[in-house]
Amino acid sequence: MPRTPCPRRIQHSPPAHYFKPAGIPLCNLKEIELGADELEAMRLANCEGLYNQDAAKCMGVSRQTFDRIIRRAHQKTAQALVNGFALRIEVNKAEAADTEGD
User: Fold this and answer.
1) Which residue has the higher pLDDT, 21 or 3?
2) Angle between helix 63-83 and 52-59 (nearest 10)
3) Confidence (pTM)
4) Domain definitions of the chain by residue range
5) What is the pLDDT of residues 45-73, one digit of tens each?
6) How do strand 18-19 and strand 86-89 relate by DSSP bridges?
7) Which architecture characterizes domain 25-90 according to CATH?
8) Is 38 in contact with 67 (CB distance < 8 Å)?
9) Three-state secondary structure readout of the chain
């Protein structure tokens, strides 16, 4: 049985939670879910330009775990772009808990 994932520090909330090809209704598209941790890994590595070791420290995970997260994120994003799927970004559970109290 797999271990439960260790908590990850996620410091960014995206302004949109869906991306899809233009002109095709969402109900006609297959959907791929990008985890909040996968989006954060892409932000740190690709947007902030951090090395994997530094990005892993920011997320509170090991470098090997960060490598697996970023690999999954790149694979899902590429699959959505190449095949014309909708990309749904998972809401950070800590973020969802914060908004429920308002």
Assistant:
1) 21
2) 100
3) 0.83
4) 25-90
5) 999 999 999 999 999 999 999 999 999 99
6) antiparallel
7) Orthogonal Bundle (1.10)
8) no
9) CCCCCCCCCCCCCCCCCEECCCCCCHHHCCEEEECHHHHHHHHHHHHCCCCHHHHHHHHCCCHHHHHHHHHHHHHHHHHHHHHCCEEEECCCHHHHHHHHCC
Position 85, amino acid: F
Tell me the pLDDT band of 14, cut-offs 50, 70 and 90. confident
Neighbours of 70 (CB within 10 A): 21
d(CA 62, CA 53): 8
As given in the structure block, the two tokens for residue 22 are 């233009």
